[in-house]
Amino acid sequence: MPAAGVVMMIVVALIVAALVFILVATIMALMKITRGLDQAIAGVRGIIEKTGPVNDVVNTINRNLDAGVDLLEGLLVKKAGLRDAVGLIEGLYPGAARQGLRNFPESTKVTAPRIAEVYTKGTLTLARLGREAPVAGASPNGPALRDVERGSLTARLLYPEIRQSRPEHMPRSPIIGTDSPVRYEPTETPGVRPRMPGRTALAEPQTGES
Which end of the chain has fewer beta carbons closer than 10 Å to its terminal beta carbon, N or C? Predict the structure, then answer.
């Protein structure tokens, strides 16, 4: 046999041996992976068996929660009416009015009134009494103060300009409360409403003297 033929046979034998080695190594690796998967599957089965009773408890809780939501929605609509109910939910959770109530599909078409606003009629009363309140500087008919995207800016803009740019020039606020060391101080000008920072002065009251 010529030398070239012998060399060719040796090369082919080496190639076949290399392929056999690679195949055997791959088979051994696959067998090792299979054994690891069997162990993992056994562990997962144990977890599933142990969580079986918990799943029943969770399903029961979910059913009870659904019943509670239905009950609360029905009670809210019965007591406040659909429109006011949607407005109350929108005031507590901005954006929830778009989703509506689960058992009242028509609630998604209701225009939510402004309920649970931060500034209410009490602020108007304070403004009339002479205390500087947000509504004294701007109208409360702007965007809702509970707007999650711009609530802080909107609330700040309701105050007079001096509160925004020069708060250090504002007088010290009185300390109020049950155990407060300082109560509302007596006014120095009874019957006269003094000029507040950032506001125009009001006319002094007329006396009965001529």
Answer: C
